[in-house]
């Protein structure tokens, strides 16, 4: 007679052929459970050595500090999150239907129309072409001068193409501007008018958020210099007007070099020093 198991009680029904020992094992099954892991061993396995944890925290802190400084002050090589509009302006080339690229969106329709009429007449008479560019903020270049130079080089890569061309850049968030151009343009305008326009018309009026006046007054001043007419001058200052906070090109170049050295040194510290500390810790063990 075969043994029959109840699906609910897990106990064998009566069978005279089953010995008492077998019946005892069947009615009282023993399930062996794994021994619990020691609490002390588990806690110890999840903890890192104090020295190694300390080195890791220093590594993370220095790396975060170096990355923050690199984003704010580093050279363009270290920056990968540059503003896309800056590169769009470069890649799209110089404007064909106008003389203005208003990426910052600060110029009125009247200003664009007056600017086009003024610069079209200049190019027809003097064969000198001037492009005006407005951007909100520069993230790929340190200042407006460097970005203006890049625009001129990319748009007109040869001397034959860019000799009579010029680019005027206005950065609205930084309240600064820059003017660059080929040899024919520089000779026709002169260094005095170029420096005055960059230091007066663009930054002072931009500080007051008079972007339309900053652009059009700069254009009239450059055209007057090319035509040999009297200089209309820069904006009129009031006694209670605050000074412009723009920086000269020389000051920017000097500080850019200092920032590059600082960021480079911090990057070395962030990666070399923690590795040396960890190696010393491992060597002592």
Tell me what the structure shows.
This is TPM domain-containing protein. GO terms for molecular function: acid phosphatase activity; mRNA binding. The chain crosses the membrane at residues 259-281. By secondary structure, this protein is of the alpha/beta class. It has a domain at 84-227: Roll (Diaminopimelate Epimerase, Chain A, domain 1), CATH 3.10.310. It is built from 11 helices and 4 strands; from the N terminus they run ααααβαβααββαααα. It has a 4-stranded mixed β-sheet, sandwiched between helices. β1 (100-102), α5 and β2 (129-135) form a beta-alpha-beta unit. α3 (50-73) runs antiparallel to α11, α5 runs parallel beside α10 and α9 (191-207) runs antiparallel to α10 (211-227). The protein is elongated and about 80 Å long.
List the helices and strands and how they pair.
Elements: H1 20-27, H2 39-46, H3 50-73, H4 84-92, E1 100-102, H5 109-126, E2 129-135, H6 144-155, H7 159-162, E3 165-171, E4 176-181, H8 183-189, H9 191-207, H10 211-227, H11 249-284
Parallel strand pairs: 1-2, 2-3
Antiparallel strand pairs: 3-4
**CATH architectural grouping of the domain at 84-227:** Roll
Mean pLDDT: 75
Terminal residue distance? 70 Å
Helix content: 55-70%
With strands numbered from the N-terminus, the spatial order across the biggest sheet is 1-2-3-4
Low-confidence stretches: 1-49, 74-83, 239-244
What value does the Rg take, in angstroms?
37 Å
Percent of residues in β-strands: 5-15%
CATH top level of the domain at 84-227 is: Alpha Beta
Give the count of helical stretches: 11
Inertia-based shape: elongated
**CATH topology heading of the domain at 84-227:** Diaminopimelate Epimerase, Chain A, domain 1
- Helix and strand succession? HHHHEHEHHEEHHHH
Q: Main sheet, how many strands, which sense, barrel?
A: 4 strands, mixed
Structural class: alpha/beta
According to DSSP, the number of beta strands is: 4
């Amino acid at each position: 007679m075969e043994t029959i198991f109840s699906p609910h009680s897990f106990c064998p029904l009566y069978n005279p052929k089953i010995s008492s020992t077998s019946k005892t094992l069947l009615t009282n099954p023993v399930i062996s459970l794994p021994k619990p892991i020691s609490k002390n061993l588990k806690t110890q396995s999840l903890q890192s050595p104090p020295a190694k944890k300390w080195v890791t925290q220093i590594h993370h802190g220095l790396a975060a500090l170096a990355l923050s400084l690199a984003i704010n002050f580093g050279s363009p090589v270290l920056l990968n999150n540059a503003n896309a509009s800056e590169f769009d302006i470069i890649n799209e080339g110089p404007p064909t239907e106008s003389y203005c690229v208003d990426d910052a969106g600060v110029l009125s329709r009247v200003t664009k129309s007056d600017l086009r009429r003024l610069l079209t007449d200049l190019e027809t008479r003097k064969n000198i072409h001037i492009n005006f560019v407005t951007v909100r903020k520069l993230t790929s270049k340190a200042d407006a001068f460097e970005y203006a130079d890049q625009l001129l080089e990319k748009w007109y890569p040869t001397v034959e193409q860019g000799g009579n061309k010029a680019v005027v850049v206005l950065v609205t968030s930084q309240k600064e501007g820059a003017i660059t151009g080929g040899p024919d343009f520089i000779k026709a305008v002169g260094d005095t008018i170029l420096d005055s326009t960059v230091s007066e018309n663009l930054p002072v009026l931009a500080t007051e958020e008079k972007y339309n006046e900053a652009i059009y007054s700069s254009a009239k001043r450059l055209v007057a210099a090319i035509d040999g007419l009297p200089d209309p001058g820069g904006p009129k200052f009031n006694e209670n007007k605050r000074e412009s906070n723009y920086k000269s090109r020389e000051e920017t170049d000097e500080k850019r070099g200092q920032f590059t050295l600082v960021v480079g040194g911090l990057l070395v510290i962030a990666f070399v020093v923690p590795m040396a500390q960890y190696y010393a810790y491992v060597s002592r063990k």
